[in-house]
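Handoff note, outgoing to incoming analyst
You'll be picking up this chain. Sequence as last confirmed:
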Amino acid sequence: MTLHAEARATLAGWTAPDAEQERLRASYVAHLDAHPDGERRACFPDHLTAGALVLSHDGGHVLLNLHRKARRWFHFGGHLEDADATLQDAARREAVEESGLPDLEVDAEPLHLSRHRVDFCDPLGPVDHLDVRFLARAAAGVEPVVSDESLDVRWWPVDALPTQDADMVEMIGLALRRSAGPGPRRGRSA
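Most recent structure output, in case you need it:
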């Protein structure tokens, strides 16, 4: 199965947690239906990206990176690459590369969607990232490593975040609810 087909199947089969997430889910599927390269960075001006919100083993902390270009605290994520077989694989790869944590458990189904404008991504001009975010869990006692893409990487208590960005707060709330309950399918990506 191609990454495009896998991304479409993942999004088409995902049950969104609310009406706004459902609207985004449907728009992502429509984007992929309209663009055979819709999961690729080359699809200008809109394309899929994948990311992971990393929670500590006990769910009390979230690992965020101070993005070098944006100069804001974010979860980990980025563009899909040829080696990525699935959206989950892309999210895991980005989280491992940007956090330095090699052994992350990444849920098999998406956690949250976010469409956002990025002004520094493409020399052609601003792009919209159609971000598909997954929940990742770190093992106890692991220490992150700052990558070239970050100014800092740090654990933050879930109730004392360095940002009150509504999108980030919503995503963390969904992660905490998923972690507290029986939850959806979970699995490790290769």
